[in-house]
Amino acid sequence: MEALQPARDTPGNDADVLLRVQDLHVSYDDAEVLRGVSMEIRRGDFACVIGPNGAGKSTLMKAIAGLAPISRGRVESRARQVGYVPQQLPIDPALPLTVSEFLSLRLSKSRAWLGAASKSGRMQITAQLAEIGAEHLLDRRLGRLSGGEFQRVLIAYALLNKPDLLLLDEPLTGVDMRGGLSFDGLLHHLHDHRRIAILMVSHDLHLVEHLATVVFCVNRNVCLSGPPKEVLKPENLAKAYGHHSGMVLDQKGSAFIPLGSIRK
Amino acid sequence: MSFHQIFVEFLELPQMQRAFLIAVIAGPVAGLLGAFITSRRMSFFSDAIAHAAMTGVALGFTLRLADDTRGPAMQGTLVIFCVAIALVMAWLFERTTLHTDTVIAFSYAGSVALGVVLISRLRGYRVLEGALFGDILAASWADVWTITALAVVTLGFLFLNLRALTLMVVQEDLARLEGFRTRRLNYFFVVLVAVVVALLLRQLGALLISGLVVVPAASARVVAGTFRRMLLLSAVFGLTGAATGVFSSYHLDTPTGPTIVLADVALLTACLLFACVTRPRPPLARQTPGQSRGKDW
Questions:
Q1: Tell me: the pLDDT tens digits for A18-35?
Q2: Which CATH number fits domain B3-273: 1.10.3470.10, 3.10.350.10, 1.10.150.20, 3.10.20.30?
Q3: pTM of the predicted protein model
Q4: To the nearest whole angstrom, how far is the Cα of B270 from the nearest Cα of chain A?
Q5: Separation CA A101–CA A97 (nearest Å)
Q6: Which residue in A42, B105, B231, B255 is deepest, having the highest Cβ count within 10 Å?
């Protein structure tokens, strides 16, 4: 599909480019999941990837993180550290691995992890959890956390290495913890205060509209990209997804795509 | 009876000394390895390799590589056969859409069937007895040294890969993000399990090896509050069960291998009771993180 909008209206300084994806192709078992995806993420960007289920969004995130086999094209990263928060992981609820132990696995640099962080490591872990409003989870078991709590722990895990680019694969945006920062508040904090460039897959178009500085609509390739006000226009989305996409408009006139309604 | 008669006398017999040494070396190491086997839901994998090992014994006889079940040639045949079957299973897990339990079931049934056919054409089923039940009291000093070397290699592997193996229990992608080569590690892990099973076969037998590997780790998982404590307790329970088993078998005049496994099961029962008394029941309806959404790519 042809791009309906150029990726950027004004080309910025090349030195600002943190991540460049060029003509990326990824195949699994002869099925081509991504066909020629190209995109650029710059420092200070809050980029959101939207698109129907099965469009290859998660594969794109995995390919950028180095976890998917690239059959053609390239991913060029200038980020010092990339943090990757996967989609929800199935965890054995009976596994006696605590949040503190899990996070110490990230901090440890040696192959032989001894099951606990040093005193300074533990302080770092506590501070990281406190930053995202989850310090009370420190000694809880990973398998006993709720979906939203586990998501925060995964974000803490990704943040421990002080990334300058954070990849978030469909976070549970609706789930917030009691007394904690709201999820969009947390993302806002990471982007604006920690100055982390964020690339996030999301189905929540309200959140995308509210937070994103640039939006990529992906359906095997990037079919549309640009500032959210442009990309999220109902007519643009309709063109990008097809007119029978099942897309609906809410009261404010924003486009909304029900989960699973669109398949191409 | 004096303290000496109860606790020391049994160690004056050379075959008891060797059995005790093998048990207290293999017990904790198998327990520690078992902590990872159970966390990775591979309990039946080690069981399948143990049963398939009987075919290794039959093959040894058929090819006239060995005249008895305890010679080094038979040891070699067993290790090669167990490693081969483990690699085939690991390859099938990776490359086919078959479920893990299906692969284990047909590898297990197929290799046991082949073993029985081979043995029936040779000397009848009696030679299988040693492979099925093992005999730790018949162990030689060479066996003690072999098990010691095996323990050193296993502990070394687990220690040097502890961080990667623990991350892989959570999710392989997390280990890959840290730069660990998970595919290679998976293959090393199954080879190690196969070698441990092959070398313990003569001591404990195909039917009981799983007990030594899985039961102490299960006990530890029931009572441990952290992953580190689970690893430590797996080794401690493995050691306690093995030592108690050898000691009890002498005084009760029971076969040593099965008594070790019974001691492990008794420990597991105690741990389960302890957990029931001290901890409230976990809520049954709690949804596991990650099960709320479908996989999307």
A1: 899 999 999 987 788 999
A2: 1.10.3470.10
A3: 0.85
A4: 18
A5: 6
A6: B231
